[in-house]
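In response to reviewer comment 3 from the previous cycle, which asked for concrete evidence that the modeling workflow produces usable outputs, we include below a single protein chain processed end to end. The sequence was submitted unchanged, and the resulting structure tokens are shown without manual editing.
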Amino acid sequence: MRIRRWIIIAIVLGAAAVAFVALRPYFSEKQIATKGAQRPRVVAVDMVKAVRKPVPVDVDAIGTVTPISSVALKSRLETTILAVHFEDGARVKEGDLLFTLDARQIDAQIEQAEGNLARDRAQLAGAERDLRRYGELIAKGATTQVNLDNAKTQADILAGTIKGAQSALDNLKVQKSFTMIRAPFSGRISAANVKIGNFVRPADTASLATINQMAPVYVTFAVPQRVLVDLRDAMKAESTKVVATIPGSGRSEVGKMAMVENSVDATTGMVTVRGIMDNGNETLWPGTLVNTKLTIRTEDAVAVPTVAVQRSQTGNFVFVVKDGAAHVQPVTVSRTFEGETVIAAGLAGGEDIVTDGQLLLSEGTKVESRSRKAGA
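The workflow returned the following structure tokens.
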């Protein structure tokens, strides 16, 4: 067995030697001598230019649409609903008649007040005639001064009575106007909470209906206190811009800042602000949650794709390509904007920046631009 094993090993070694001799012409002596040498590695990467351009300084937040004016309509009289003059949820204009209330009791009171006023005016006319007559008689010595003074006093009393009666009549006319409930401003009205025949009174807790002003509207949201100074300066310059977008629909309205709350919330460090939107198409509905973007100003800055910025223990950096080699360039990040990072320091604009393939790079690594395949 041992002799057979050695015979098999000798046959294998002989075959290997024959194969080496047969293949030797296909290898150059240089290749054999330098079989351990390798070509310097070149990494294929994606690159873009760092661009200096106007970049807006903005703040994103979640906001709520609130009406500038909202009124709950209530009756100022104890009476009955005679008519409802609108459809539920309809758009109304300022001055439109909405409800008609029963005014028969007030009409009767007005007639009574008008009668009292007519009586008092007739009495005043009689007193004034007596005053004139006593004045003529006192000149002829046919009456006493006391009679003249009494006639004048009676005329003055009746003049005061007429003023009181006129005031009572005017008050009743004002009360009658409350039986015609009209829209105080243009907007959209809610469903009517009462119908024809319902008895209403001022003490009722529920309103007859509610009107919300739809155009313009407020968008209320909160911003960090760090932007408060810049925001106030921008409001003075009227350079602010607010965009409110309804999530999921893509529909938005553009407006400007209207006000800043007079205090900062000490627990959150946020301050409440309001933007005013024209909302002519009623895109924004009161109570809707919207994504808001507040643009404070626009400044000239260097921007690169966010994917190009790498992070390390020493800070942020990017790979800048010069003369076919990648170099580590530390940068100071200011903020991000729509998938781009604004660089405050470290880049001047125009540099070739690596956006993909950074894991294979180090200082001085040779690189080449990766060719894009069709449809990539």
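Residues 25-37 have pLDDT under 50 and may be disordered. We consider this sufficient to address the reviewer's concern, and the full set will be provided in the supplementary archive.
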